[in-house]
């Protein structure tokens, strides 16, 4: 009986401690009045500041969506540019409240770094870019090539796996930052450049003569990119996760930035729950019940931010592909709000 009572006391203490930790980040964010969002140092289409410090990109819009949900103001975000090497430390230390920086969700990162990934906001895969003058049309023709890549990323590991699996030799030329890597490739220090396929299209825009380079067809890895928060932060984890899901559900239901006010009058129960006209789903995550309405009104649904930042109407001209909704042959699928 004593052992049972002791176990109950320990369990209750642990539960109280977890509750205190889980509520910490959202409470702190509300108190300071803004979200600290770990961002890329500059990747076109995903996270990049202009010369006036104005940030744009797919990841940036998700950060702004969080601010819209919490504060009803998408501008209450402080973007913290982080290198691949520094990104996890910044989140672990509390310098960033959330990391939304084209980061691959892997088992080791999810279990050993004290992080929780909240979902996938971009399904990607690693590829290769080469100069057209090499006359190469496949990554399987890269035997003996020198390959530029960035240190501290899954890219290095995938590169080694791919060449070993295909019994090919290569020379790795690694750099600490993405800018150094791109400049090295552009100057001819290596035959090929490898990173996530989305990154290849973005970085190609920085090259001296972008049209002189092609992205090879092979995708050699799975790179599910998504936001992450700290372990033990359940309430903030729920907020970040459900803001993404709300944007997906909004696209699926046809709720857009332009028509969201009109959709408030909808008789569709799914739309009513999404926009807070029915139920109290905001209270469950520490927000107002119109949290998703705020997100869509200020930022838009997932399809809108995809098209604007990386889609076929953008500079990157990337097709939806795997990032299409599940109803259109893609992998983007959100649980229902109910």
UniProtKB/TrEMBL annotation:
Pfam family, one: SBP_bac_3
Swiss-Prot/TrEMBL keywords: Signal, Transport
Superkingdom assignment: Bacteria
Cleaved signal peptide residues: 1-23
Keyword Transport: yes
InterPro entries (UniProt xref): Bact_solute-bind_prot3, SBP_3_CS, Solute-binding_3/MltF_N
Record carries keyword Transport: yes
Domain Solute-binding protein family 3/N-terminal as annotated: residue spans: 34-263
PANTHER family: AMINO ACID ABC TRANSPORTER PERMEASE, AMINO-ACID ABC TRANSPORTER-BINDING PROTEIN YHDW-RELATED
Entry similarity comment: Belongs to the bacterial solute-binding protein 3 family.
Protein name: Amino acid ABC transporter substrate-binding protein, PAAT family (TC 3.A.1.3.-)
Lineage of origin: Bacteria, Pseudomonadati, Pseudomonadota, Alphaproteobacteria, Hyphomicrobiales
């Amino acid at each position: 009986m004593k052992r049972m009572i002791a176990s109950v006391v320990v369990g209750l203490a642990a539960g109280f401690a977890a509750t205190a930790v889980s509520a910490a980040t959202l409470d702190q964010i509300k108190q300071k009045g803004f979200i600290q969002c770990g961002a890329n140092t500059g990747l076109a289409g995903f996270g990049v500041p202009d010369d006036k410090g104005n940030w744009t990109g797919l990841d940036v819009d998700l950060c702004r969506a969080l601010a819209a949900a919490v504060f009803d103001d998408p501008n209450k975000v402080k973007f913290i540019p982080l290198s691949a090497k520094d990104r996890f430390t910044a989140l672990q230390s509390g310098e960033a409240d959330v990391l939304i920086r084209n980061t691959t969700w892997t088992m080791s990162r999810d279990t050993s770094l004290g992080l929780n990934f909240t979902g996938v906001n971009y399904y990607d895969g690693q590829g290769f870019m080469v100069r057209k003058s090499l006359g190469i049309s496949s990554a399987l023709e890269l035997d003996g090539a020198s390959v530029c890549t960035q240190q501290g990323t899954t890219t290095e590991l995938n590169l080694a796996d791919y060449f070993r699996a295909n019994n090919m030799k290569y020379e790795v030329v690694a750099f600490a930052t993405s800018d150094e890597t791109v400049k090295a490739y552009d100057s001819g220090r290596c035959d090929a450049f490898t990173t996530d396929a989305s990154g290849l299209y973005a970085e190609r825009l920085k090259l001296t003569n972008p049209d002189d380079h092609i992205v090879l067809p092979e995708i050699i890895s799975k790179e599910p990119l998504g936001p992450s928060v700290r372990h033990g932060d359940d309430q903030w984890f729920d907020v970040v996760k459900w803001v993404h899901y709300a944007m997906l559900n909004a696209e699926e239901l046809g709720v857009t930035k332009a028509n969201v006010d009109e959709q408030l009058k909808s008789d569709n129960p799914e739309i009513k729950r999404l926009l807070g006209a029915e139920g109290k789903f905001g209270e469950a995550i520490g927000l107002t019940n119109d949290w998703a309405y705020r997100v869509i009104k200020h930022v838009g649904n997932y399809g809108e931010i995809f098209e604007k930042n990386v889609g076929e109407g953008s500079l990157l001209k990337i097709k939806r592909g795997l990032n299409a909704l599940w109803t259109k042959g893609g992998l983007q699928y959100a649980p229902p709000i109910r």
